[in-house]
Structure formats: C-alpha cells, structure tokens
Amino acid sequence: MEESAVRMKAYATSFNEIHVFLSTNYYNGISSKFYLRDLKNDEMVLLHGDSLEHSHLDGFKEYVFHTSFTMGRVYRIVDAYGLTCFLDFSRMSLCEEFDDLYFYDGDDLGNRYTKEGTSFKVWAPLSTGVILKVIRKEEESLYPMKRGLKGVYHCYVEGDLEGAHYFYLIKHVGNYEISMDPYAYSASANGRTNIIVDLDKVPMTPSTLPPLKRKTDAIIYETSVRDFSMSSTSGMTHKGKFLAFTECNTSTDSGNPTGLDYLSCLGITHLQLMPVNDFATVDESNVHELYNWGYDPAQYNVTEGSYVTNPNDGYKRIKEAQQMVEALHSRGMRVVLDVVYNHMHDVNFNALEKTVPHYFFRRNQDGSLSNGSWCGNDLNTTAKMCRKYILDMCKRWQVLYGIDGYRFDLMGLIDIDTMKLIDAQAKAIDPSFIVYGEGWNMTTALLEEKRTTIQNNRKTPQLGFFNDFFRDTLRGTNQMESKGYFSGDTYKTNDAIRAMCQFDMFDNIGQSINYVECHDNATCYDKLRRSNYDESKDIRKKRLRLMLAAVILSQGVPFIHSGQEFFRTKNGQPNTYNAGDQVNALDWNRKDMEIDTVQLIQFLIRLRKENPCFRYDNYEKIRENVQLDNIEHRMIQYKLHQDTGRYKDFLIYFNASLDTIEVEVEEGYIVLCHSEKGKIVDQRLSIDGVCLVILAR
User: Fold this and answer.
1) Residue 438 is among the residues annotated as catalytic for this protein
2) Residue in 217, 313, 415, 438 annotated catalytic
3) Which CATH class name applies to 3-88?
C-alpha cells in the first residue's frame, strides 16, 4: 500500500477506546460523523467522542471514541463522506489488561499428530481470521480455523498428515499474511514451511551421566557446530554438521585425534554449542555461500537446517541433533546450548510478530522498539505469553534433544523472574542442569532492578555469569592494545588475586564463569600479538599458557574457547560472526604443532577434576583452605589445602613478570609442573620469568 495515499487509519487501543486518524489532505481532516460497522451483521453504530488538538501522526487529525466491540470480528470505520478503513487491533497488545485477559496456559499449541488426524492450535488473539494451509504430495488444502478461548484458533484435519508441510494465513487489518508456526517441531529449508512429524519416531535416549554435585565441577568448552569440523584438517566426513560430533577415529594430517575423540581426551565436562536453532542469514540450500554464527534467530523452535544433511527432511532436523547429543553423552560430556532469547533477526519477519503484532517485542514509553541488543529489537520477556513461549522452548530443547544446560546470550536483557522460572523448570527435570549467561547491563526498556545482570547476581544465586572482571584483569580489556596481569601489567597483581578467588563479586563462587577468551572479540593469541608486539612469539605463548592455567585452576567455573589451547587465531580480526570458514574454522593441524600446550591443558584439567581444592563450592571452605599472596609485587602465590586426595597441599606460582624470582619452599613439596623444568634445591626454588610452577605434598 502506498502510505502517502492513505486517508484514514483506525486503531483499537484498549477494550473500549478507538483512535481514528483522518488525513489533513482530505477535507482538512474534518468529518462530522464516524461510524463503527460490524461486517458480520452489517450493523453500524454512531461513534461519540472528541477530536484532539494535536495528533501524534503528522499530517493527520486524531479523534478518540469510547465504544464497545468484540475481539476477533472484522470492523470498518466509516466517516461522514463514506470513506472507510478497517479497524486495526494490533495496538491492543500494548494495553495493560491484554495479558491477563488473553494469557493461555495450555500445553497444546502447535500441531499434535496422530495417524488418524492432526490438531492445530495457534495463539493469535488480535487477528480477525486464521486459515491453515496444508501441502501434501503437491496438493494444497485450506482449512479455516475456529477462534476459541483466549484468542486461540484451532482446527482438526482428519487423515495421516505425517511429512506434510503447512503454514498459517493470519488476517490483520483486512489482509492475510503467511506465518510459520512458532510451536512447530520441524521446517523445510530456509523456513518456507513447517513440517509435521510423528514424535513417537524421534524419542530421545535419556542420559545416564552421574549427577553434577557442584557447579564448580563443570569445565566448559565452547565451540560452533560449523567451525568444529569445517576445516579440511578436521578429518571429519560430515563437515559443518551435527553428525560430525558422532564420528569416531577422526584425525589430523599427522594421525592425531580430532573431533569427538579429542574432546574425550581433553577431559572437559560440558560442551557449549553456539546457537543451533534456525537462524536467518545462512542459505540452508547453499551452505557455502554465506556464513554466520547464528545470533540472528529466525525460528526458536527448530534446528538450523545448514547443520543437517538434508534441511528439507523434517525428521533429520530432529534426529541428527539428537544423535550429536547422544554421542557426547556416551563420552561423559554434557551439552550446553547457547540460546538467544533476547532478540530476533528481523522484528517483522518472524512468526511471533506475525501471529500477535506488537506483543512479543519490548517497547519504550514513546512506543518505539527497545534496542538494548543493538540488533533492532529486544524480546518482551515480561509479557506473559512471551515468557511462556521461552519456557516452553527451553523445555523442548531439554526434553526432546537431551540438553543439559543453557548459556544465555545477553542475559541482562531478560527479566529476573523469567530467568528464575527457566532455571527452576530445568532443575525440576534434571537437578544437574546448569544455567549461566552474559550479565551485561544493556540499555533496554526494562527497569535496571529487574534485569538479569551481574550487578543483580545476588537476586539470582542459582545462575552463573561470565566474569568480565576476571577476563579484563588477567587478559586486558577488549581493546587490542590493553594489557592484563598475564600480559605483563604487574600493577594488576592484587586485582588478579581478587579475580582468581572472588569473595565480594557474587553471592556464591559457583556463579563465576571464569574466562579470558570466547567466540566474541579477538582470540588471546591475536590480542597478544598486538598488545605485546615487542615480545617474542615464545614469550607470548608462555603468557597464554599462564592465562589458561589460571582459568582452569581458579575458584569458580572454568570456560575455554575451542582452539584456545592450541593458540587459535582469527587473523587478528576481533568480531568474525560472518567472516566465513577460512577465518573461523578450527585448524586442527595447529593442535599438532602445539601439542605440548595441549598436553599441559589435559594435565591441568585432570588436576582440577582429581582435587576438590580447585572446586570448592562455598566461600567458607575457600577461606579455610585457600590463600593467595603477592610476591614482590609481580608474582602470585596460590596455596591450597584439601583433606582428601593423593595430595593434601598445593603451592602454585604464576609469574607474569620477566624477572626470575627465588622463593623458599617448605619441606615435603615435590614439583608436579614447571614450565622451565626447575628443581627445588635446599628448599629454594628459582621461578623464571613468565613461568608456571605447581608443587604438591
């Protein structure tokens, strides 16, 4: 429609109020009468109200009328000259009463398949009509849906619809628009249609992993489904696919393990996958043409088609993701999903907006879209049906796909009550489930005290937060030139001690997700090439080993970015979300070149898992058994005690300076690890510059 030619608009703004806008180019925007015409019975009611002195639409005169109407019916507004327009209900979702009147607590939205027939339900209370379109063997059928309680449209189609494609035609303001089903289980390539599947054919094998007793027992390793296997060096057949994680006996060009076998050898407990739900900017039919990490969600309810062997096969969308999770479970690893319930790729082109306009996306007081995500929109998580939708999808990923945890992207944009409900729902199913995320305080149209931010962590003691103080203190900020303690800024020695053993930042130590590198921003290897350009490559690598050792051995939950342990590089680029496979794919041959560092990380992970002193889960135990000291304003001494295990005491030195420092060592200690192969002589030990030393007794 040509907007400049529109002469009249009409919106229902509450359950008894209508605003009519008449163009000033049409009789100067003046009409002596307005009527409300019900198209179901052709009745017309004269409206009574007032014109406003100023309109919030430029070029229009605004009128306000108080009258009654019925949601779901089609109405036209008629002026004194016979000009008409449809009454638009889309603004009704913004009024306070809407949530209470139209909240639907049923668990039957979407389709429910049986061989005898399939039921369909979609929540679309603002619409004036919904039609189901089903495509079977190139035959298309239309089924008008009936409006029920709470604005839920429903219909039942007899016969076996397994494998059939479908979508909804939803009518707003007189026009029908195609919408996917936000509760569908599968879809065709690039989200053209949804696909009906028999869920009895895709049961998930329950995990038999032992309970996770403490959050601090977790060791998290982050990767992307695509990046993990895409390189020619991966040795994997299903490159860029879920099934790559199911392949055994894969190896580098030199014959050393890659993929699933490598993850098993590394010793991690949790594999965090970057988004696997359907995202917008990869062509699922031409997967090599475009690249994206997936923080651009198009459908929350189905898997990303470029990660399956056939994106048009409704069952493979589900089953191949399940097989990936099952394979990781079989090797003793839990699976964490990176979920993006803070924004969508396109506020207009998704099923949420199309089914209920203006409802699912947060708005500022002036009616404009909130944009704390910097992606054009924020999900309105405090809206009851938006909150329900997120909870329903979280439950689906947990139950249907066997997921063991969630990492929430931009968790600070989600309200605290919603996050608490997500965590409680997950733990009711699996007490070992973990939930953590980015607690950054973004500017969004949600009160600060309601945001799930690091600053509010004491309101959510069950949730973990990425610890940016740990990252910035030990590595330096995201500015490439900045330095942290381990890159040589020894003025930060005391801050580094605080970072490695947090007492005042969190409600409990299990909330601290300790990291120096993740998919965002430059890798530590690339950053050090800039910040420590005047040092040799060998010294920079030593600094990277110190950072990794601190991540793994500090109090809290360690988090490792895939390839970090073999000095992953992205050619100096900081943000590579769409930079392609050449930059992002893991180069597995680097693992062979840096095998000494990989073996060190394996040793450190094993040390952490075998000794509870690195995994204390409360501050009382930490205060009793852990001590960190500043040695000569340059080096950290990390002393730990435990009552069980092969060793009772550990003495660890992190020397980030270039100086050799000599220390006196108590009797009984032996050297477990010394990056410079030093020895204790007459209870004295020389610790070279940029060096890690681990002693035990």
Assistant:
1) yes
2) 438
3) mainly beta
